[in-house]
Design a protein that fits this description.
Blueprint lengths: L1 H42 L3 H7 L18 H32 L5 E10 L6 E8 L6 E10 L3 E8 L4 E19 L11 E18 L10 H16 L6 E4 L14 E11 L12 E6 L8 E2 L10 E10 L6 E8 L7 E9 L9 E6 L15 E10 L14 E3 L4 E4 L13 E4 L2 E11 L12 E7 L4 E4 L10 E10 L6 E10 L2 E11 L1 H6 L1 E7 L7 E10 L2 E4 L1
Antiparallel strand pairs: 1-4, 2-3, 3-5, 4-5, 5-6, 6-7, 8-11, 8-15, 9-10, 9-12, 12-13, 14-15, 16-17, 17-18, 18-27, 19-22, 19-26, 20-21, 20-23, 23-24, 25-26
Helix pairs in contact: 3-4
């Protein structure tokens, strides 16, 4: 009996194992088929498909999607002709760059010229080429280039005290993108009238300076001055939007040359939560702003001592040459006195994001490096008001206190029409924006808890920064969402340069506790006349102020 039961059990177990093996093989085969289908789908994916599936911020920093094609054939041919290119280009660079070096020659030098210039035996490598689409009357090509040169460049430098220094520029490393523009297209061979070339993007430019037979560091300041001069010369001679136009067919190509297209008005309002660079005390921040990083085109703010939340409220004006590609760059430094200033952080604002004639109010997050953004440390924020005004167009941005005047900047007004309205001539006039500012403090929401009992007794202090006029609301007891509905009037003598500061405090019997603040310029209320909005409180984890602002203008004009 046990024999038959064992036999039946063994047969049943064997059949079960066979079925299990067949089932697992079937599952395994199905998974292989699904995997093969998935791999095939990935193989058919394009770069655009990848970007749709995974946003750019999720890719590691070493993943780059390049649309440039390889140029191995061009590099091979360039090596062959490089000795001839070297000889021709060396003379061209000498004749075109020397005047620019002289233009940017630092004050500590009396002369700065080339005594020897050859590009060396190592040809640059073109790592990619791309065509910029969208051009209808020309062709725009971009060439990515990498060059680790063995050039022989010697500068003949003379100081103001008569000392001559032969300085060698060596170990040149360059990576960048050159732009070639074939424009205009014509029906005569070679089918384009001129070629414009420019350094579209300068990714890396490294070099070292060495005095032949000596040490440059023994002369303080000379090395930094010469290096800054070389970089300024490159920036001003060939870096986009500067471009060199080479006529191919005789004609007038002045429209291809660099021309200003508008002005950018910048109000540097404030910064907050800056990183402290000082061991003792707090940083002494100041800002540098530029569109093109040239010394004479870089603006500097005043230094605010011992402050990580500085308020500048300063105005700057820049010339714009290509609103579609240029950026406004802001760098915040810690002023170290006689020592070199230390960078706190920097930020960029693309001008193409600005609507002409409209003020844009922005907070920009500061980063360590604008090119390689791998450092995620929080460095603070900077607050700007920006206005882009193109040349040759009527600004849609009208002066709110006199319809006969058109505001071409935040601080200047030009008379429109024939200049005869209201008996005012065509002189340029400064406008002192005088008026009455009415501020209604409506309420606050979600204020932070500062009392032991989980409540607060909040009130608001209102301060006009320039005139130092103060007012304050009544105290609302035991509330984190107080309602005031109180209105205060301020006589403002210069609205474009004044600021409104509102601080929220908790009233205590034996003192007061700070709960946060908000700072605002008067630009918006001057332009809009009246508005109601909710403003977040700075310096606290939560809280908002609900305000209603109204402007009653009384402008004063002064001839300039």
């Amino acid at each position: 009996m046990s024999f038959f039961s064992g036999l039946v059990l063994g047969v049943a177990l064997g059949i079960g194992l066979i079925f299990a093996f067949a089932y697992l093989e079937n599952v395994r085969s199905k998974r292989r088929s699904e995997l093969a289908t998935t791999v095939a789908a990935f193989a058919r994916m394009t770069v655009q498909d990848s970007r749709k599936l995974l946003p750019a911020e999720y890719y590691p920093s070493w993943v780059v999607f390049s649309q440039r094609q390889k140029l191995t054939w061009l590099n091979l041919e360039l090596r062959k002709i490089w000795p001839y290119v070297n000889e021709a280009a060396s003379e061209l660079i000498r004749s075109s760059v020397e005047p620019i070096l002289e233009q940017y020659r630092p004050a500590v030098l009396s002369s700065l010229k080339f005594s020897k210039l050859t590009l060396g035996t190592v040809a640059p490598q073109f790592t990619g080429v791309s065509i910029i689409e969208g051009e209808t009357d020309g062709i725009t090509m971009e060439l990515e280039m990498q060059w680790d040169a063995n050039s022989s460049i010697i500068l003949d430098v003379k100081t103001l005290v008569g000392v001559g220094l032969p300085i060698q520029v060596k170990d040149i490393g360059f990576t960048g993108v050159f732009r070639l523009i074939f424009k205009p297209l014509v029906d005569e061979f070679p089918c384009f009238g001129a070629v414009s070339y420019s350094l579209r993007e300068k990714k890396k430019l490294d070099f070292t300076l060495k005095v032949i037979g000596g040490d440059l560091s023994t002369i303080p300041g000379v090395a930094d001055a010469i290096e800054e001069t070389i970089r300024d010369a490159i920036e001003d001679s060939v870096t986009w939007p500067v471009r060199k136009v080479v006529p191919i067919i005789p004609g007038d190509y002045s429209d291809l040359e660099l021309k200003p297209v508008g002005t950018l008005e910048v109000k540097l309002v404030q910064a907050k939560e800056l990183t402290n660079k000082d061991i003792v005390g707090k940083s002494d921040p100041f800002a540098k702003l530029f569109i093109r990083p040239l010394r004479e085109k870089t603006k500097r703010s005043k230094t605010i001592n011992n402050q990580l939340n500085p308020i500048w409220n300063e105005h700057f004006e820049f010339i714009v040459e290509d609103a579609s590609t240029q950026h406004l760059t802001v760098r915040i430094f810690d002023d170290e006195g006689v020592q070199a200033s230390e960078l706190i952080g920097c930020a960029q604002m693309p001008l193409k994001e600005l609507e002409p004639g409209k003020v844009k109010d922005v907070w920009l997050k500061l980063v360590k490096d604008l090119e390689v953004q791998r450092d995620t440390k929080y460095r603070g924020q900077v607050h700007l008001e920006l206005l882009y005004c193109p040349f040759g167009t009527d600004n849609v941005f009208k002066n709110p206190f006199n319809p006969n005047f058109s505001l071409t900047s935040l601080e200047k007004a030009l008379k429109g029409g024939d200049g005869t309205a209201n008996g005012i001539g065509q002189k340029k006039r400064d406008v002192i924006v005088r008026g009455v500012l009415s501020v209604t403090v409506i309420s606050a929401e979600d204020l932070p808890i500062v009392d032991m009992m989980g409540k607060a007794d909040p009130y608001v202090v209102l301060l006009m920064k320039k005139s130092e006029t103060k007012n304050k609301t009544r105290v609302v007891n035991d509330s984190l969402n107080p309602v005031w509905n109180q209105t205060f009037d301020f006589v403002v003598e210069d609205g474009l340069h004044d600021m409104l500061i509102l601080e929220v405090w908790d009233h205590d019997t034996f003192g007061k506790d700070y709960m946060g603040r908000c700072i605002m310029t008067l630009t918006r209320v001057i332009l809009e006349g009246e508005f109601k909005d909710s403003f977040p409180l700075d310096g606290t984890k939560s809280g908002r102020l609900n305000l209603h602002l109204k402007w009653n203008p009384q402008p004063i004009y002064r001839d300039t």
